[in-house]
């Protein structure tokens, strides 16, 4: 099984980051605008459309307000993993900043490279949105 792990520090408070991250049905508007072009929420599953045309169905596994963590699994769409589980978490850093942690486990291993590329691209967009594009910056 391949594991993809990405962390970055955001110049925004953990509560502000969590406010965006926990809005499970608004990824295209708040967390990754432009990288994600559309999100539709139906019960516990969201359909996410990426700018490159990739569409995935992600089932919500956990939305934990206390630990500021969301977990989800790809259950359909253009990608066909045998297994996919991801989580994103907003952790407190010094000076009111936030450590954003994104971890993904995926099978088969051949999906690791394209998913890692998505994580890299998505992380850059998310950081920018969280620091300035959504009005959640500190200070």
From TrEMBL:
SUPFAM superfamilies: Bet v1-like
Domain of life of the native organism: Bacteria
Pfam families on file: Polyketide_cyc2 (PF10604)
UniProt protein name: SRPBCC family protein
Alphabetized InterPro entries for the sequence: Polyketide_cyclase/dehydratase, START-like_dom_sf
């Amino acid at each position: 099984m391949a594991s993809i792990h990405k962390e970055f520090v955001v110049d925004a408070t953990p509560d502000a980051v969590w406010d965006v991250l926990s809005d499970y049905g608004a990824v295209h508007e708040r967390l990754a605008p432009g990288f994600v072009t559309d999100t539709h929420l139906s019960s516990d599953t969201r359909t996410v459309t990426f700018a490159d045309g990739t569409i995935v169905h992600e089932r919500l596994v956990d939305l934990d307000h206390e630990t500021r963590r969301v977990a989800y699994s790809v259950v359909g769409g253009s990608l066909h993993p045998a297994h996919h589980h991801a989580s994103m978490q907003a952790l407190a850093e010094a000076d009111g900043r936030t450590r954003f942690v994104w971890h993904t486990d995926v099978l088969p291993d051949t999906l690791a490279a394209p998913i890692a590329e998505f994580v890299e691209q998505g992380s850059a967009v998310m950081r920018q949105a969280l620091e300035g594009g959504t009005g959640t910056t500190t200070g």
